Amino acid sequence: MIRNLWTKEELILAFNLYLKIPFGKMHSTNKDIIHLAGLIDRTPSSIALRLVNFASVDPALQARGIKGMNGGTKIVQPIWDEYFHNQEELIFQSEIILAQKENISIEEKYNDLFLGLKDVKGETKIREVKTRVNQSVFRQMILANYSTKCAITGIDIPELLLASHIVPWSINENERLNPENGICLSALYDKAFDKGLIGINQNYQVVLSMSLKKKTKSSFYQTHFGAIENLKITEPIKYLPRPEFLEFHMDTIFDKR
C-alpha cells in the first residue's frame, strides 16, 4: 500500500514536535511520536523519519556537526523556511492545528494561560492569546533542550524552572522563539540573569556583576553565588546559546557597576 503524500498540515505538526523533543529521542518508541502518529494516521517510524529530516536542515545542528537524514530535505525545507521568516505565526498555527487534531479548542489545551482574559476582546485578545501560547511553546523547547534541568545548578523540578530569554522578549521580536535565545534556569538565577546581576560569557561561563560581589560577606552570596562564579553552564542537547546573544546581554543588560 502506497501512503499518501504528506500534507502541509502534517508537516507543520511534525515540525512542532521537532522543536519540543531532544535529537536523541527522535525514535519510533517515543510516546510523543506515537501520540502524533495516532492523530494523523501515520506510523511512528514515519514521524521519526520526518523529525530527523528537519534535523538535517536545522542550521544550528549543522554548525555543531550534528546530522539528520537528508532523504526528505526537499519535503521539510519549505516548512523550515516559513518558520525562519515568521516564527511566531507558524508556532501558533501549529498549536491550533494540534488542538484541532486532539478534538479540543486552543483555550481548552492551554486553559491555565487564559486566566484573566475573560473580558479581553477582539484583536487585543488574539494578540495576547498568541503571545501566551508561543511563550508556553518556547518554554517547552528550552526545557527539552536542557533535559529539564537548570543549566547552572542541575535542578530538575519543572515547577522551579523557567525559559530565560538572553535577548529579552520585548527587545527583539524576530528572536523571541529562537531556541538559541533561551537558557533553562531555576527561578533565582532567571531573575538574577534578567536583572543583569549575573551574565554568561562567550565561553559559556557564569560571570558575577560587581554590584553582586559587594555582597561577598553575606551567607547567601557564598551559598548561591560565590559557588557558581566561572562555572560553565550545562551544554544543551540541540541549541547552544548564540554567542552574539550572550554578547548583547553582557553589553546591554549585565550590571557593570
Describe, in plain words, how this protein is organized in 3D.
- With 257 residues, this protein is mainly alpha-helical.
- It has two domains: 8-104, no CATH class; 146-252, no CATH class.
- It has twelve helices and four strands.
- The protein has helices spanning 8-20, 31-40, 44-56, 59-63, 73-85, 87-101, 106-109, 122-145, 187-194, 210-213, 219-224, 243-252, and strands at 161-165, 182-186, 198-200, 206-208.
- It has a two-stranded antiparallel ribbon with strand order 1-2.
- Strand 3 and strand 4 (206-208) form a beta hairpin.
- The longest helix is centred in the middle third of the chain and has 24 residues, at 122-145.
- The chain starts with 7 loop residues before the first helix and ends in a 5-residue tail after the last helix.
- The mean pLDDT is 91.
- InterPro entries: HNH_nuc.
- One of its GO terms (molecular function) is endonuclease activity.
Give me a quick take on this structure:
The protein is mainly α. 49% of the residues lie in helices and 6% in strands. The chain has helices spanning 8-20, 31-40, 44-56, 59-63, 73-85, 87-101, 106-109, 122-145, 187-194, 210-213, 219-224, 243-252; strands spanning 161-165, 182-186, 198-200, 206-208.
Secondary structure layout plus pairing:
Layout: H1 8-20, H2 31-40, H3 44-56, H4 59-63, H5 73-85, H6 87-101, H7 106-109, H8 122-145, E1 161-165, E2 182-186, H9 187-194, E3 198-200, E4 206-208, H10 210-213, H11 219-224, H12 243-252
Antiparallel strand pairs: 1-2, 3-4
